Amino acid sequence: MKGAGEAGRRGEKVRSDCWVRVEPKSRGGLRLSVTTKVEAMYGEAVRATCSMALEALGVRHAVVTVEDYGALDFVLAARVEAAVKRAGLGEGRACLPEPGPGFGAKAVRERLRRSRLYLPGNEPKFFLNAALHEPDGVILDLEDSVAPSEKDAARLLVRNALRAVDFAACERTVRINQGQRGLEDVEAVVPQNVHLLLIPKVESAEQVRAVDERAEEVRKASGLKAPVHLMPIIESALGCFHALDIAKASPRVVALTIGLEDYTADLGAQRTQEGRESFWARSVVVNAARAAGVTPIDTVFSDVTDMEGLRQACLEAKALGFEGKGCIHPRQVPVVHEAFAPSAEETEKATRIVLAFEKAEKEGLGVVALGSKMIDPPVVKRALRTVKMAEALGLLPKGWRKEKK
């Protein structure tokens, strides 16, 4: 898409999926010209979508030119809307697709968050098959992966994708922008049943509360019952020092994560694979998350060709106390899942501790003993977490308690 200047004032858009130009007129009615590479099969449908979008946006007098390269309806509608609004038309109006099969998926506070797959918010071609890779969550990214000149168009694409694309069992996540632009993102995506808002570059609890308050206002105004969960990202030295306050800023915070590219830049250090420069910060995030009762999630692994390096990074993160990692390519997802799954040895030990705990509870005992060894409450808590994950992943069969007793 072209930025400022004459093209931007006309609402011109240049994209691989479609190109739209809107030239406002004071009179003369609406003139729509559409060419599409799928003319033979879908030409009339493309024109109908464009006409529907222009009507919904209240465009009465304009010359609208559309070159379609095979965009899906929700993309075409978003592109037309962005061009219309860049031309100074359609104020206060929207062109929303009909809700698709995944629109009613429910947000869940306690769930697996081993992997979150980042999808650039201005690249809808990546949205459609994201669920096939079975990440625990998909992140439609409006922040770092989107150029400033594309932020408005990406917001509309993400809004429409949340309505139209079936993300299956994935947690439907949006990484919003910072400040006022981020609050505008919240207003656009919360009514579309987003499950989780990823808040970037958080340095204070007030930043989290500002997003939370706006999300709650929009949720209630939209008549939605399910809460919108939050995951702040710590990306600076100041954020690290306020990590606990950030993690406790709202009851809707469910996880805390760290972004090491910005963190190391803030330090003036080079990010290395060994990670010595970020060990303290990652430990801070884990401890803050655990103290607040939320899930600690590790940063992304940036080399999409190094699967062994990724596996080792996941095992290191797991050893530090993290329960998941960001993914920037679908091929990273199965490696992350395998690395964060409890091993057979971990599962076996955890089941024995859980059985001992349940027996002590049933007998009204104040302590848990495994053989002659006393088991501390934090060890029981970790075992319960391990068993829960093993059950969710099918590593423990149904009725395993009867088999073990």
Query: Any idea what the shape is?
Result: elongated
* Category by helix and strand content: alpha/beta
In oligomeric terms, what are we looking at? single chain
In what range is the share of β-strand residues?
A: 15-25%
Strand/helix succession: HEEHEHEEHEHEHEHHEHHEHEHHEEHH
Radius of gyration: 24 Å
The counted number of beta strands is 13
Strand adjacency order, main sheet: 4-5-6-7-8-9-10-11
Helix run count: 15
Largest sheet properties: 8 strands, parallel, barrel
First-to-last CA distance: 64 Å
The parts where pLDDT drops under 50 for at least 5 residues are 1-14
| CATH architecture heading of the largest domain | Alpha-Beta Barrel
Helical proportion?
Answer: 40-55%
CATH homologous superfamily name of the largest domain? Phosphoenolpyruvate-binding domains
Describe this structure in words.
It contains 15 helices and 13 strands. The chain is α/β, with parallel strands linked by helices. The protein folds into 3 domains: 6-86, Ribosomal Protein S5, domain 2 (2-Layer Sandwich), CATH 3.30.230.10; 115-340, TIM Barrel, CATH 3.20.20.60; 344-404, no CATH class. Strands 4-5-6-7-8-9-10-11 form an 8-stranded parallel beta barrel, surrounded by 4 helices. Strands 1-3-2 form a 3-stranded mixed beta sheet, covered by helices on one side. It is elongated, with a radius of gyration of 24 Å.
